[in-house]
Amino acid sequence: MSVAELRMRLERIRRLAWFLNAASRIPGLRLRVGLDTLLGLLPGGGALIGTALSLYIVWEGRRMGVDRQTVQRMLGNVAIEAVVGLVPLAGDLFDTVFKADLRNIALIEAALAGRLGGSVIQQDLADGFLDAV
After folding, report:
1. Which one of 9, 41, 66, 104 has the largest count of C-beta atoms within 10 Å of its C-beta?
2. pTM for the whole thing?
3. pLDDT value at position 23?
4. How many Å is the Cα radius of gyration of the chain?
């Protein structure tokens, strides 16, 4: 996979993670929420949709060459968010604070930086993308 393709994939899942976890600011609070919080409020399948989108980020990370240990940590983040998210309201509050998708993006970036010597994401990290975590 070329560096350009890695950058493109990384940017796509970054946008998705941001949209899921930090797209909107709650007025008066220093807290950002995303679609994942709103999906969790939907009865019956909202949490399942959020979990599926989170698993897509893990799958893309694996396709980009993230090592097995990092994938396991990412799956752990998704599992924690999914299990705690089953608790009505308290789970939604946890989702808002835990931000598994942004955590997983940070894991992907660290794994890629370690594997590629930082050449793919060095400038991106300097831009402060992960400040939302």
Report:
1. 104
2. 0.85
3. 93
4. 15
pLDDT tens, residue order, the chain (133 aa)? 788 889 899 999 999 999 999 999 989 888 899 999 888 888 878 889 999 999 999 999 999 999 999 999 999 999 999 999 888 888 888 988 999 999 999 999 999 987 766 555 555 544 444 444 4
Residues in the chain: 133
Give the bridge partners for 33, in sequence order. Answer: 24
Tokens 């660290």 belong to residue: 110
Listed as own residue / partner, the contacts of 49-52 with beta carbons closer than 8 Å and 24 or more positions apart are 50/20, 50/81, 50/85, 50/95, 51/78, 51/81, 51/82, 51/85
Residues 6+ apart with CB under 8 A from 25: 31, 32
Q: How distant is the alpha carbon of residue 78 from its chain centre?
A: 9
Neighbours of 5 (CB within 10 A): 10
Give one DSSP letter per residue of 17-76, joined into a string: HHHHHSSEEPTTSS-EE-HHHHHHHSTTTHHHHHHHHHHHHHHHHHHTT--HHHHHHHHH
- Among positive and negative, which fits the CA dihedral 84, 49, 42, 133? positive
